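pasting input
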Amino acid sequence: MLIQNLDPLASSLFSLLAIASLLLSFVMLGSRWLKNYLYAFAAESWMIAAISAAIGFYGNYPELYLIAILTVLFRGLLLPYLLWGIIRRLDVDREIHVSVQPSTTLVVGALFVMLALSISFRIASDLHLELTVAALALTVMLSMKLIGFLILAVRHEAISQILGLLVLENGIFLGSQVLVPGMPLLIEVVILFDLLIVVACFGVLVRFLLTRVGTTSSLDLKRLVG
Amino acid sequence: MMIGTLISVLPLAPLVAIVGCLLVRQSPFAERVNLLAAIVVFGCALPLPFLIDGHAQTFWSDYVVIDRAGAWVILCTAIVYLLASIYAIGYMRLLEDEPLYRFYALFAGFGLTTLVAPLMNNVGLYWIAIELTTLVSTFLVAFENVAESIEAAWKYIMVVSAGISLALLGTVLFYFAGTPVLGPTYAMTWAILAHAAPQMSGVLVTIAFLLVLVGYGTKVGLAPMHSWLPDAHSESPAPVSAMLSGALLNTAMIGIVRFLQITRAANLGELAALSLVGLGALSLFIGALFIVRQQGVKRLMAYSSIEHMGVIALGFGFGGVLGTTGALYHMLNHSLNKSLMFFGAGNVMRSYGTKEIESIAGVGRRLPVIGALWLAGAIGITGAPPFGLFVGEFTIMRAGMKPSFSWAVYLMAALLVVIFIGFMNHFRAMYYRPEPAEGRENVELSAWCAAPMWLALAPLLVLGLAWPIGIWNYLSATAQSLLGAP
């Protein structure tokens, strides 16, 4: 197994990249401008591509280079481009109603990271991997998951919610690169394509929302209750 | 060999229908080709349970699996797809100025993805199939293109995508749990995971199962992840509601059941069963609360779906041959009965031009035949004899009668009584309140609208009067293989 006997340089490289992606999701939490979310998401995807390539190099998984290239193409370029197209069509460029202040959100995000850390250590100690990069990867994976849900919960603009979903997916993708680099190529490629379809569907729905409902804020979606 | 041919034709028929709809772009052709596809699918699905022996068979270099449980879910799906396709012809003609070929292309696509998901042998591909069902059905929910249906579609895709991403995380963690046993690269099929389960890390399997349960539980509509369900089921066209409720929920449930099987193999069955029972009981509770004070007629049916998914979750959670058999039997009956209810609700909605229970009165006089069928269905759906759901619920309650779960049985019994009273009270209002004389506009409901209700009620009555011994043997054998006895 790769993560059990990794040389220190590789280990610190992975850690650096994983923590950088985690920090980028905090950028998304702290900002109110939709464009910033987008840049942070794109940068995060590039980090994940770098992780894939690094693991491909150190762990001798040549197929991960392909995954890295596809990640850059899809998550790093195509998805941000599609989302940019959606943002341009909307006439909002930031979150208007802030139900929870960004500063509070950052603190809650930090608490989530602690929760993720304690869960990951429990899992890692059961597998005798406490001192490896696996514990860190699990932490980052779970924290990004929780932060994604936090974004979904406190942000109301359609575009922020889509990005929240994409952070959820990024977390899983990052974790799976480190924890299970040998996962069959087919699955990962299909999941990448699937993501593309998801965002395309969201694009169509946002257009429907604009024309038929006249708003893209989930705060105004309250016709259906009870 | 025969089975191989059948399950190749199974996805091919809707695929041809999609291509046909998109090429010809004419409504009359589209409804015919979709109906034909549904008939072919039903013809393929019906013999499957008879042909399968005890062993799961795999095809296409292990990517496709067919076992007893899968064949059963496919049969339920095929029945609902056929009934809904018949009903769609009558119902969709009543909608104005929407290009129907697009509807039928999406509808066949929904049928295709729902049929394919239980066939997936690879856990990752199963996840993708479930995700695809969401993407296709979102546009069916939004099909009427009014503000409410768009809102419902948005909530549906948002909540379900977020939920199902938890299932993906759980799937990755299951793969991770398997790597110490199976090496870094292996084909993650259900059988291989279950085989390796006893040596997996308990902590990891626990958290992975809980994530998968919450993830696919969102898709199944278990409370408290049910919030998308009433909106999507009430705002979509009635045939789509029937498919969402009768076919899709079962397809997601089979995933939970297969993960439950793996978790049992890892000796963590008790915790898994307890969490399933907890979610099931909560679903029943939420269903009961919202049924009693419901104002929308299709939302009433939607909360009833939550309730019945809760009952099925209880059945699988109670476990044992009795509980699992009861839950599987309940799946078929629920598929039939809920289709009947949504068809009736669609007819009544079209006839009265409203979704509000308050504005509907004198159903029995205005629509004598459809009204009688719908009322019979309402008695069935609340779990009263002599219809099939009663038998399923009774079996599940018998299975739960053991010290660890008896609380859930008592709770279930009490809530079912509350639901019966609440549900029938709405029907009393809709049937026996005097109808205001003025403002009647008559919408002609064609035979296409009534025929599928007959087709759903007849087997429901037969399955309720006697549990055919053949089905009992089949389902108890399915239960035994799901419970891990070789």
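fyi Strands of chain B lie at 57-59, 64-66.
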